Amino acid sequence: MSLIGKHALVTGSSRGIGRGIALKLAESGVKVAIHYYQNEAAANHTLAMVRERSVDSLIIQADVSRPGDVRRMFNQVRDEFGKLDIFVSNARPELATFYQAPLDITLRNWDMAVDSQAKAFLVGVQEATRLMTEGSRIIAVTYAPSARTGSWQPWIAMGSAKAAMESLCRYFAVALAKSGITVNAISPGLTEDSVLNSLPQEVQNLARGWHESGWTPMGRLTTPADVGNAVVLLCSEGAGWITGQVIAVDGGSSLMDTVFPLEIQQG
Q1: Contact (Cβ atoms closer than 8 angstroms) between residue 251 and residue 218
Q2: In this predicted structure, what is the pLDDT of residue 145?
Q3: CATH of range 7-249; options 1.20.1280.260, 1.20.1560.10, 3.40.449.10, 3.40.50.720
Q4: Which of 26, 85, 88, 112 has its CA 20 to 30 A from that of 8?
């Protein structure tokens, strides 16, 4: 699918899901601004991979939890690109900065999650739309179960922040509809090369086994490339009538019901 001549900013694109999105956009001919916070080496590696796809790019450093940094990031995009067609809000801080149980979480950790997600998206969309015209796309990478479950206890801050991002998508979708700009969220399933890799190896192995056993009907975890493919689809001209939606990219895992063990459900 060709998006030749378009310009995109993907936050948190030095590695993981963000890198997968940046590479899929580059394969479609999009010039991508690669954002990172601390890992410049990883950003340079993504840059090299993008250039292997015959697309030029640039690197931007910013702490998205700081509104001033977010505004500076978009000013740099304006200076380099002159416009913006695609904004993907994906950046997430390291697990240690927000990962605490509900009764233990500090306000500092809570603020890190909310500031890096909901607040960063709010400011980011306000800035992005100054550079956008009709047909542009805004996409938030979220995690839909955050809004309806509570079992992953140390995820409370990030889960709440991701749920707020999904709510913001709906409000912005209405606000920007007359401008011809769509706003959607993508909710990946448990993804390789993502937050999963921050957890102990035993936890990673259990998670992969769980999903491969059938709790993801398609029999594997999500990959960054899967998420990137979904972003490209939402950025296509044919997706111009889709806005304000949360799209699950999870191989069907969100369809599963835990009321009975899997072997009983499958008859």
Answers
A1: yes
A2: 86
A3: 3.40.50.720
A4: 112
